[in-house]
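Course assignment 3, question 2. Fill in each field.
Student: A.L.
Task: Predict the tertiary structure for the chain below.
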Amino acid sequence: MDEFCKAVADGDISSMNAFMDEDDFDIDAKDGAGLAALHHAAMAGEAAGGSLLVECSADVNVVGNTALHEAAASKAQDVAWLIVENGGDQCMKVENNEGKTPLDIATEAGADEEMLAMLQKALDDVS
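Answer field:
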């Protein structure tokens, strides 16, 4: 799993495809820290890797510290948008273990106004 997460964070689509072609591959498997590959894409701001994961049905609604929380913390607007637009908009209301939503995290991280507006719109749309 660690090698796959590294490929995701690096945006190495060729390696990602090789891993995903294995019969027993679980796209939502967690690493030793409890993070799925989509979390790694979000933390790295890797839109191409995140997009491929979403296209291959990665779970965008993980409870707790979601990939959207990680994208918000990393100010990775492209990845956050991919998650929101592909069913992860429900994560807008999810509080992490510290009681914070993705919008709270993005605000604290100093995300730009465009990202904050996108997250606010997503929150308004699900409220």
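Instructor remarks: The chain has a mean pLDDT of 91. The CA atoms of residues 59 and 91 lie 11 Å apart.
Grade: pending
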